[in-house]
Predict the structure of Pyridoxal 5'-phosphate synthase subunit PdxT.
Amino acid sequence: TPKVGVLALQGDVREHFAALSAAGAEVSAVRRPEELADADALVLPGGESTTMSKLAIAFGLMEPLRERVHAGMPAYGSCAGMIMLADKILDPRSGQETVGGIDMIVRRNAFGRQNESFEAPLEVRGVEGGPVEGVFIRAPWVESTGARAEALAVYDGHPVAVRQGRLLATSFHPELTGDHRVHALFVDMVRDALD
Ligand code: GLN
């Protein structure tokens, strides 16, 4: 059984625990470098990316996270977690850093005020059985991707799900829907990496 950690500094940790368990993973909380070392893979939850970044630095996790991602650990980030996995933020707050790993530039809170939160059905490449209900909450979009990053879903002309090798990121929150197919896709990626 793949051991998937959830970065548990801030954000919707509990919802990812439930979705990952349903998708067949053994799930644990990651707050310390030793807990990261014990996990085969990591989920970075939705929440607030500036706070998550500052806490990761304060907890001594930022460098270990970069090292593991660089070394090929599978990782999945939703919303704020997507921002954490982006190589570059278009409009970072002061002191905000990312783990990086996905060759993309993201724009925070990109969908604008009147549309800050909304739902839309999305076709996601690699997810069978019909559209996924995309729950967007003050979500980022992907401004541009490098050659190695593949858009798996597009909304309004912007990628909202991206994969690069063992890294996966979504602007939306499948952990809030009870539909575990995106988490199952990630757990399959983890299984492939462990083979
Ligand atoms: N707007 C948040 C950020 O910049 C992300 C929101 C979310 O994760 N739902 O981190």
Summary: The domain at 3-194 is CATH 3.40.50.880 (Rossmann fold).
